[in-house]
Specification:
By secondary structure, the chain is mostly helical. The chain has a domain of 148 residues: Collagenase (Catalytic Domain). 39% of the residues lie in helices and 7% in strands. Bound molecules: zinc ion (ZN).
Length: 227
Amino acid sequence: ALYAQLSDYEGDSQHLMDYARPYLLSDEHVTDLATLARALVDTQITRLQYWYENPAADGKPIIDGSPYNQWVWWDSLGYGALPYDVVITNQLVASLETYDVAMHSALRGGINGGTMTYSKQGRYGGYVFISVFALLNDMAMLTSLRDDAHYSDEQLAQYAAATLAHELGHLFFHYDHPYGASACLMNPTPLLRYRTWYEALNTDACRALQLPQMQTGAVHISYNPNW
Ligand SMILES: [Zn+2]
């Protein structure tokens, strides 16, 4: 599934490899999209394991068999009668999925910071959610993927707002991801380095790049007719 997803970016494989390389557990054998996909899966499974092994405040593992950490659960919410266009959660969203695996989430061990997806009742045909779990908490896995050991309330508010603006960029303008174009809001946050990502944003510099991923209508809202 990851390889299929990466193949959408075929002409852009060098950008994908350049974006991912510093964040993989090992980039030793990465020479093309197929080897990149294998390295991503290794990285994702290894980092995701942390959440099965470490307890939450209730003493149970953070991923405990309930569905709420699963990205597919959030991706499918809009197929019911979801009455919201925007959802903000403090729930960890991290899982291993068999479809629509995003490279930047795989690098973080499956952690998803936000998604725009189909919603039957959505005014714009979709809804967005963001998860602030990785901004709010300071567990060892999070800080190892982050640039600061702790984010202040002000940082938290800024990065959450920017993440929401990113998702609204998908919803309102159907922008895609210009991987590695650090000036652009639609460049996915590398690992969980929100400060580095945020401080590099520069609207004019992004516009000057005239990237195809930053054109209106670059992506469609994905819809699963079987749901
Ligand atoms: Zn995005």
